[in-house]
Amino acid sequence: MSGSRHVMWHPLYAVAAVALLMIVNTASAEPVDSIKDLKAANWNLSFTAEDGFCLDYNGVNLIRSSTLVIHNGQYTSQYFNYTNKDNHITVQDIPGGKMVIIEHHSKTFTGTHKITLLPNKAAFQFGYGMPADISNGRMDYCFGYMSAQPFMGRHYSATGAKGEKSGIIPIIFQKADENFAPYLYKDITFDSTLGKLNIHVDGDLDGQELLDFRNGGIARARRTPILWSGIFGKPMEGGKRYSQTITITIEPAAPKELPMRASNGGAVEISNAKKVQEPADGDALIIPEPKEIKLLDNNFELNAATQIVVADGANERDFSGALQFASEVRSICNLDLKIVRESQVASEKNLILVGELTRNKALAKAAGANDLTPPAKDEGYGIKVTPDAVLVAGYDPAGSFYGMQTLRQLVRSEQGRSFIRGCQVTDWPTMKFRGVLLYTGKDALPFHKKLIDRIFTRFKYNYLVLECSNMQWKTNPELATEISESQDDVRQEIEYARRNFIEVIPEISTLGHAGWMFKNGQNRNIAEDVSILNNYCPSKKETYDFVFNIIDEICDLFKPVYIHIGHDEVANYNKFPTCPLCSGKSMTELFGEDIQKLHNYANKKGVRLIIWGDMLLAPGEASSQMNAPNSVESRKRRDMVPKDIIIADWHYSPARVKDYTSLKLFKDAGFNVIAAPWNDPINISGFAEAAKRDAIMGQLLTLWVGFNSNENDLKREKKQFIAMVLAGECAWNDGKTTFEELPYNTEEVFDQSYERKQPVLVTRDGFTTDIRSYYNVKLADQPSGSGWIGMGPDQDLSNAPTGLVRLKGIEFRMADSTSENSALRIASSMDLDASYPSKVDIRLNTRAKSLFFLHTAARFDETGKKAGAYMVSYSDGTQVEIPLIYGINITAWNDPKDCPKCKVAWAAKGKAYEKSVIRMMEWANPSPEKTITGITMLSNNTESGPALLAISGTE
After folding, report:
1. 385, 492, 505, 369: which is closest to 433 by C-alpha?
2. Residues 6+ apart with CB under 8 A from 557
3. Which residues form the domain of 914?
4. Which of 346, 377, 481, 733 has the fewest CB atoms within 10 Å distance of its CB?
């Protein structure tokens, strides 16, 4: 997977946006480059370079954002993008509404949007074209990333060139990229929550697709559930002008009177609670979760005389775990521990003994006395921490190394004491292959070493795939650019990784995504199409002279067990085959013959190949990423691929576990298989669960960030690196812990690990509150729709905890039953079953060092949007606002996405949804000396509808 798809997995996602939002006076006819919340009739329209169009109707969002990308088909040349910022906007008053004219300009594209906003009607007319000298133009036009909520559970009917289609937009996400309409619909009508809503397409546009992007793998879909409506890859002739109009018409639903669910609580009962806060996982949190752990009463005290003892015959790799542990102790405890060999030890106390029982006699003796035997599993280990000694016994050298990674996480420094938490651990990995893919680059070496020291090893990864398109080649030095990594740096990284039990696998993109071969004007003689340099010609001998030279060079440098040769998305960005030598054969024939040639050559050198799996999958055979045209061709391709080639089965759309079906398909076809997710937590945890279900080889986390890999990537794409925590957890443990059930925040853990900070483990006294008199909604729903969100008992929180409970270490007082009022709900713009208050005052009389809010929301909303607030009032008349920001410190009950400023307090499999969640937000009181007299819960009347279940606090 190379080129642009390393940053995103779908052509539509090529939009990278940086824009300044400007609030303008829309009464002016002077051109501007953005508009914000332009009100016209019953519409609100915004346009920015970052998000394109945003459209609301009577306060309800319809279009979250939109994109326009004009490119050359391969995305190596981009002729226009909204983010070019060359957008000139004027606004005109017209009878009954407004007209917005947006002129888009670049040297290679001109276009004009004329948007007419009238009561219940919004028309988007678009005229555009390219210069005559451009022959390879393609248009990706997303008319709307449409908010899914007005359409969920609602009937629709559509017509297009391929006929008619009707049905129900499912309430629950079913399948990534499902097309609800006939391919390229011209007309579609929804029975939406707003009324009858019609979208009609006229002009040169053949129609639009309507795809289900809820739980989608792109950033916009992760912010909120959306449907995607638009077209991608539309060919454009140079010199020709095009025109199209897309019109939205709404017949508003008749208003109806809704019952009011008021909140009429009184003074809140506050109950003192000893240890209201405890560490969520005790005080021995180990990541990844070990197979077995037993806490012991006594700890091992660390001091300047403590020694780390390795076997007399320990080699450089055997020392690695001890060295890393010593470095960790130095950072956390400011102690320099000596590493000695067993024959140098005079005492049997104050020791940390590490190794295999067959090689370290001192360890074997202590293990026998303490009843410690490592599990007979590859990479397995056992640990026992006693007051006199710490024993780390590996089944093999890798197991000893991973045991020391666990021991790193048991080091504590509190109130002048340094110690290792007393416990006994038995552990081994579930997956044999646990890898991460990174780019090379001239600045990569120091960054990658730091990642190896602090992230790879700590979370027990054993493979690093290096994408080598930006490496200097001795056989082809002319391919080098200013960011190409030297082979000396790569060699150092290989050696450093192997010392830390990490095998490095080189990755080169072949057949497709082969643009790296043609840098600086090189090798054009072997290009399949010189106008789009994405493929080499598989029918030329010269092609394989070049590729085999590269493989030789890779083998000399890496001494690899495996080489990853790509082979994904061969024709996604251009037509293939095109050259006269290839035109007589099918894609399947050329693909299979190319694989055979590369396999035969690698086989002679004793190397196994890995390829991506998308070209071997047809629609219906996987949850996403299926690039064979049909099941007949996909089966032919799978039959043509030698079965000793490993399939890296990449799927980036979060899907239900049962929908990750291709792992078993490949395994049943005779392949070893690796699941390859991206950075979305639901994608990672669900795909890993499916991988364990199907007992495949392992997991490869793909991090498509930074063509010149360096530490600045953490600032730009930190989310991708944070994913290494969860992916490490999922690859090692046996499935006991899923993403929603983690006893930690992955970003906090990444920061602590990367910066070598000790985790905060506290026990505090405090109080619980009884806010049950304020509850105004049941968490359980009824068949009549009279409960939680009015959508029936399959869409509720009836299985939520009740009574006095401890969630993630915090004690809360909740309702006695979810069938009675069990939450305090405030208003949202999507309330159809009842009306809720926009403001509720909760009366308190207490002091607190911190407060813990147990809350959720009724519906999804845009990540980053303010859904409401808690306003804390003090006895002196001052107030402090705690904003509720969707996706940051609150989410919907059925939205299990990663949320940086709150934790999942409770998670369970719902009756219809795969996961239901309730979140906990901690607020540090800036004035703990003041008495809190009340908390006002405020709604911003957005889509979410916050709901409060409980409040606890610490003294």
Report:
1. 505
2. 487, 490, 491, 494, 506
3. 269-278+763-954
4. 346
Q: How far is 252 from 634, CA to CA, in rounded Å?
A: 47
pLDDT digits (tens, 9 = 90+) for 552-606: 999 999 999 999 999 999 988 778 999 999 989 999 999 999 999 999 999 999 9
Residue 752 lies in a domain: no
Residue 558's nearest CA partner among 489, 494, 500 is 494
Structural domain contains residue 739: no
| Whether the Cβ atoms of residue 18 and residue 83 lie closer than 8 Å to each other | yes
> DSSP readout, 747-798?
HHHHHHHHTT-PPP---EEEEEEE-GGG--EESS--TTS-SSSSS-TTSS-T
Model confidence band, residue 294 (pLDDT cutoffs 50, 70, 90)? very high
CATH code of 226's domain: 2.70.98
H-type helices in 231-315, by residue range? Answer: none
The number of domains in the chain is: 4
Q: Cα dihedral sign for 596, 597, 598, 602?
A: positive
> For residues 885 and 891, what is the distance between their CA atoms, to the nearest angstrom?
9
Place of tokens 């905890």: 801
Produce one character per residue of 676-692: b if its CB has 16 or more CB atoms within 10 Å, e if not.
bbbbbbbbbbbbbbbbb
Q: What is the CATH number of the domain that holds 657?
A: 3.20.20.80
Token representation of residue 20: 């300044």
Query: In this structure, are 85 and 229 located in the same domain?
Result: yes
Closest CA to 823 of 849, 800, 841, 848: 800
Do 793 and 722 share a structural domain? no
Distance CA 635, CA 638 (A): 5
CA torsion 838-843-844-849 (nearest 10°) is: 20
Statement to judge: residues 137 and 193 lie in one domain: yes
pLDDT, tens digit (0-9, with 9 covering 90-100), for 484-543: 999 999 999 999 999 999 999 999 999 999 999 999 999 999 999 988 899 999 999 999
Query: What secondary structure letter does DSSP report for 365?
Result: H
Amino acid, single-letter form, for residue 472: Q
Other Cβ atoms less than 10 A from the Cβ of 132: the count is: 10
- Residue in this structure with the two tokens 């490095």, named with its chain if needed: 504
Looking at the fold, whether 274 and 287 belong to one and the same domain comes out as no
For residue 327, give the amino acid letter.
S
Continuous H helices in 172-290: 219-223
Q: Does a structural domain hold residue 740? A: no
* CATH (domain of 379): 3.30.379.10
Assigned domain for 570 exists: yes
